[in-house]
Amino acid sequence: MPSLRKRLLKSGNTFWSIIYYVDGQQRYAPIGQTDRRTAEKIYHRFLGQLADGKFDIQAGIK
User: Fold this and answer.
1) What CA–CA distance (Å, rounded) separates 16 from 7?
2) Which of 13, 17, 38, 42 could serve as 34's disulfide partner, Cβ 3.0–4.6 Å?
3) DSSP string spanning the chain?
4) What does pTM read for this prediction?
């Protein structure tokens, strides 16, 4: 199951990302510097697309 992570930068800003696993390897989808509410909305949209099969995890992996 993907998780939402928050990192505090030295500048005082927060950086959000989604951490998930594909074939046993850890991947991440960076969200960027935003507030908590927006990051949670993006995270829930990511989960919805993943559940519906609309988000192909294999595509766009760095």
Assistant:
1) 6
2) 38
3) --EEEEEE-TTS-EEEEEEEEETTEEEEEEEES--HHHHHHHHHHHHHHHHHT-S-TTTT--
4) 0.76
Neighbouring residues of 22: CB distance < 8 A, sequence distance ≥ 6: 57, 58, 61
Q: How many CB atoms lie within 10 A of CB 54?
A: 8
pLDDT single digits (tens) 10-35: 999 999 999 988 778 888 889 999 99
Dig out the tokens for 59 from the structure.
């595509």
Of 33, 3, 2, the C-alpha closest to 16 is 33
